[in-house]
Amino acid sequence: MSKKNSKKTPVKKIVKTSVAQPTEKMRDKREAKKAAVLGQEKKGRMPLFLGIACAALLFGGAFWLVNLNASKSTPVGASTTTAVSATVVTLPASLFEDGQARHFEHVDGKFTIKYFVLKSSDGVIRAAFDACDVCWLAGKGYYQDGDDMVCRNCGRRFASVLVNEVKGGCNPAPLNRKVENGNVIIQVQDILEGKTYFDFPGKV
Q1: What is the DSSP pairing of strand 148-151 with strand 178-180?
Q2: Residues sharing a CB contact under 8 Å with residue 164, sequence separation 6 or more, in sequence order
Q3: DSSP string, the chain
Q4: What CA–CA distance (Å, rounded) separates 60 from 68?
Q5: What is the pLDDT of residue 137?
């Protein structure tokens, strides 16, 4: 009996692979990375939102100011503060040609005496203290609305042609003035006579 040569067939080894399951540490890293990415997106949007909000506020503020000025005209800024040592205040009459009331201040020690000058509708340049016998304690003065000076405290209106003509009550307290050689001249002593209208706590 003879032995036959036979070849052995190699046995194939099958290696099973398994997908590694993410550990809790890996999951935490992924969540942290995700949160960081989302955080960057939120940060990137924040300046845009802030810009839009600021623009809206600015637009709203401008709209409010426009409407405020339309409903209540404000005094022309006090561009002149007279010196304490002056004896006479001289202003060019041409300054009042437009009919707008100009407000001024004279500082004397602790007192700031306020007054205004305007050219009324009849062509006369007039002056008065920015106070009256009734509402002076409120320290609010007057603003111009068309041809009227209006008390900021009680709302009463006074035609420009009555300034310097009528006194007492809520009428603007008259201030002596004269027009000479193209100038409006006011004596400082006359201005100081209005000191009592501005002698109060919390004066403006």
Answers
A1: unpaired
A2: 126, 127, 128, 174, 175, 177
A3: --PPP-PPPPPPPPPP--PPPPPHHHHHHHHHHHHHHHHHHHHHHHHHHHHHHHHHHHHHHHHHHHHHHHHSPPPBP---EE-TT-SEEEEEGGGGTT---EEEEEEETTEEEEEEEEE-TTS-EEEEES--TTTGGG---EEEETTEEEETTT--EEEGGGTTT--STTSPPB---EEETTEEEEEHHHHHTTGGGG-STT--
A4: 12
A5: 86
What is the per-residue pLDDT for 60?
47
Parts of the chain with a pLDDT under 50: 1-6, 11-20, 37, 41-43, 59-79, 83-84, 203-204
CA 142 to chain CA mean position, Å: 20
pLDDT at position 28 is: 65
Q: Which CATH architecture has domain 81-198?
A: 3-layer Sandwich (2.102)
Q: What is the pLDDT of residue 170?
A: 92
